[in-house]
Amino acid sequence: xxxxCKANCGNKAALKRPKTGDVLCKECFxxxxxxxxxxxxxxxxxxxxxxRVAIAASGGKDSTVxxxxxxxxxxxxxxxxxxxxxxxxxxxTGYRDDSLETVKQNRDDYEMELKxxxxxxxxxxTMDRIVEQIGRSNNCTFCxxxxxxxxxxxxxxxxxxxxxxxxxxxxxxETVIMNILRGDVARLRRCTDICTSGxxxxxxxxxxxxxxxxKEIVMYAHFKKLVYFSxxxxxxxxxxxxxxxxxLKDLExxxxxxxxxxxxxxxxxxxxxxxxxxxxxxxxxxxxxxxCQPCKACILLEGLNRGxxxxxxxxKSKGDRMKAQQDLEKLHRVKNDF
Length: 338
Prior knowledge:
The chain is an alpha/beta fold. The chain has helices spanning 26-43, 61-76, 96-110, 119-123, 127-134, 139-158, 169-182, 185-190, 214-223, 241-254, 258-268, 296-306, 316-337, and strands spanning 15-16, 23-24, 52-56, 82-89, 113-118, 162-164, 195-196, 205-206, 281-282, 289-290. Strand 4 (82-89), helix 3 (96-110) and strand 5 form a beta-alpha-beta unit.
């Protein structure tokens, strides 16, 4: 039985949208997909004419589709934006070095400027070396913290007006679940924000794909024949996010709209004024956005440089005891030398 496109264009349907259940031909799917992102951008006023916008590019499906769609919409609707690709090289052999080749291909395909920054040049460490120190249990903490700050550093170097990331609807719903499980009220309040900024001196981040399903991003990339890197990070299988992702996929099988339901629930969540709120400011050491002093990146980096890789893992009091113990041992060694 031939199924026709629901948009009444006269073409045969090629797919069923996971988000809406509509059966569409490829061309009508492309139009609907791009139009929804355009409406997200205009409704939330994510950009202003003449701005320089950095696109966080990893070579994966999300950032590749974001770069492609932003270039398309920028030309179609005359956003008048200067688009730049910003990539972070975490130093993961056999993973990031390969994905960066895809980013370079995207640079050529979309005719965009590309800036690549590495953990090595920013922090003096690569993720390969960090994993040798910390092991596989908490490595994603280091990578996530360093990567977020590295993007801020790159955006500041490029002197852009905002940074666009490829966070999709699934990512945000997973983050809501993770923060609920952790009881992290501070992050639960802001994880669904489509635009985040730590203050006047920080470069805002925007999420044009906030309401876009991951499955539809994959379908768009497939039918458009976009070049992207699909291998999972070799250190990711033990990530805490994986448990939230598996739970969300189970829920989606029962009710496909659960992703949007979770996002809308997070947006509408309110807390009593008596709830303690984190105040985001600037780290006294590095000068970048932080809700604590010093920032998490500086604490983790200090631990690595001290030979105490677990310094920033867990409670602050535990880290203080570890530093005090190390300082005491150094003092004894100095006394013994005399």
